[in-house]
Amino acid sequence: MNASPPVTPRRAWFGLVVLMLPVFLISVDNTVLTFALPQIAEEFRPSASTQLWMVDIYSLVLAALLVAMGSFGDRIGRRRILLIGSVGFGVVSVAAAFSPSAEALVAARALLGVFGAMLMPSTLSLLRNMFLNDNDRRLAIAIWGSGFAVGSSVGPILGGVLLEHFRWGSVFLIAVPLLLPLLIFARWLLPESKDPNPGPVDPLSILLTFTMMLPIVWAVKTAAHEGLDVLTVLAFVVGIASGWLFVRRQNRSKTPMLDMGLFRYAPFTSSVISNFLSIAGLIGFMFFVTQHLQLVLGLSPLHAGLVMLPGAVCSVFAGLFVVKLAQRFAPHQLMMVGLVLISAGFFMIILFRHDLNVVAIITSFVVLELGVGMSQTISSDTIVSAVPPAKAGAASAVSETAYELGAVVGTATLGTIFTANYRANIVLPDGLSAAQAKDAGESIAGATSVAEELPGGIAQQLLDSAFLAFDSGILPTALIAGLGTLIAAIIVARANRGHSTGRVVR
Predict the structure, then answer these.
(1) Using CA atoms, how far apart are residues 153 and 286, in angstroms rounded to an integer?
(2) What CA–CA distance (Å, rounded) separates 89 from 496?
(3) Is residue 17 classed as helix, strand or coil in its secondary structure?
(4) So what's the pLDDT on residue 3?
(5) Are residues 380 and 420 in the same domain?
(6) Which parts of the chain sit beneath pLDDT 70?
(7) Does one domain contain both 268 and 399?
(8) C-alpha count within 13 angstroms, C-beta hemisphere, residue 40
(9) Are 134 and 70 contained in the same domain?
(10) Are 57 and 137 members of one domain?
(11) Same domain, 206 and 178
(12) Of 232, 271, 300, nearest in space to 35 by CA
């Protein structure tokens, strides 16, 4: 006789609400920053490179620490490390809000990455241990994942209201009221969980994860923006060598920080790749479209946020609906459909690029977000269900590492392509000072700031050229992102031959 599926206690569903708060916060934090960039650029006049650092330094540091923090959570307790991360994230968010310079803001974002690395693996790994019933766990992950979509929709609207009435720093203060309920209710609603036999802490493995992730992510970003040089190549070498040593050490350890055998399980590995490529495209899209809406189409931050709302709502719907579909179709098939929809969204952007108005953006974003909601729910569930509950922290860290690496690569490569196209196509009118020419030639935000200082005719000439130069990046970036997600769908199809259901690796 087959054993009855485990019953999920009611407390777990209330705990799920608490676990959605940090997910919602991270999504809001990333989204409102992109909407606040024009104001930050006007105040600090940072270079295009510094603007990119503001966006992706958080993901860079977070990605470098995720595996280590996931392992720590397995050892010292996932609820404990979640609470530590929440306190630290709240305090540093206040510091970021009052940053006196662009460099100080970059430093604060780096610290947010340290504490963010404690938050994300903890939430997903706690879910893995709270929901042992397969259907309930998949639904819980869909609801948990909807926190990203809800945050990306509510964040711009909330941020838009704040940015129209207060200084840009106000968007970082959102963290405080969001984290307070977590700190109050976590002890009652979230059962502590950890690996009962974690083995000793391995400082060398922790160091290797850092020296593997940080140089590689930095090298990807730097090479995309400035091209290859000796230092960039050296960073790649250090990262790859550290990765090889890390894998070798894990394979030889009786109690590895990360079980490398997971990557021999095709559904697990293809899900990680799916996470990475889909998020790289999505973040690259967001980096472009938020600036296009505000700087090219002239919308306020609030109205720009409202334009993104239908897509985010569709992402939530798709993430929840795919749970029902998973009872009739194989998970990998649903993941493939989601990836194809993401790709279709990018190709629609290419078709609309000569008249990329609000309607075209909404239509493309709705299709793209339907795919994100489907693929992210299924891929996250496949990753965490591929391990026993005791190892959920490390597996969740792999999932989040793919997500954050995708965010960094999306911003670094696709964002840099936009910057490179802008610099190559901008035509500066006569009559600009050397400082004005430098700012206007660096980025579209710089051009709009400079235009405010110029007479009407020259200002309009500069803006027209800047808008055309900025939008010249649509074709190459959307094409790269669309092909990337199509490749991910092919990888998922090939990897899941013979795997009709996602079976747990023990």
Answers:
(1) 12
(2) 38
(3) helix
(4) 55
(5) yes
(6) 1-7, 30-32, 34-35, 48-49, 56, 149, 152-153, 156, 198-199, 221, 224-226, 386-395, 397, 404, 408, 412, 498-506
(7) yes
(8) 32
(9) yes
(10) yes
(11) no
(12) 300
pLDDT digits (tens, 9 = 90+) for 361-419: 999 999 998 998 888 888 877 877 766 665 666 667 677 777 767 776 777 677 777 77
The verdict on 333 and 412 lying in the same domain is yes
- What residue type is 430 in one-letter code? D
User: Torsion over CA of 137, 141, 143 and 147, rounded to 10 degrees?
Assistant: 160
Which two three-digit tokens encode residue 123?
Answer: 């939430």
Asked if 426 and 48 touch (Cβ cutoff 8 Å), the reply is no
Distance CA 62, CA 467 (A): 33
Same domain? For 227 and 341 the reply is no
First to last CA, the chain: 22
Q: Which helix (H) or strand (E) holds 295?
A: none
Query: Based on the structure, what is the number of domains in the chain?
Result: 2
If we measure between CA atoms, which residue out of 208, 154, 213, 187 comes closest to residue 32?
154
Q: How many CB atoms lie within 10 A of CB 110?
A: 16
Q: What is the pLDDT of residues 66-110, one digit of tens each?
A: 777 877 787 788 888 899 999 999 999 999 889 888 888 989 998
Q: For residue 300, is it within any domain?
A: yes
Burial label for 281, CB within 10 Å (0-12, 13-18, 19+), is buried
What confidence score (pLDDT) does residue 30 get? Answer: 64
**Residue 315 is encoded by which pair of tokens?**
């992402």
Residue 449 one-letter amino acid: S
- Does residue 156 belong to any structural domain of this protein? yes
Q: What is the pTM of this model?
A: 0.75
Token digits of residue 160: 């838009």
Residue-by-residue DSSP string for 332-350: HHHHHHHHHHHHHHHHHHH
Residues 6+ apart with CB under 8 A from 201: 75
As a whole number of angstroms, the distance between CA 66 and CA 61 comes to 9
Cα–Cα distances (Å) from 371 to 11, 124, 286, 301, in that order, read 31, 21, 15, 25
Which domain does 21 fall in, by range?
A: 10-191+255-425+473-495
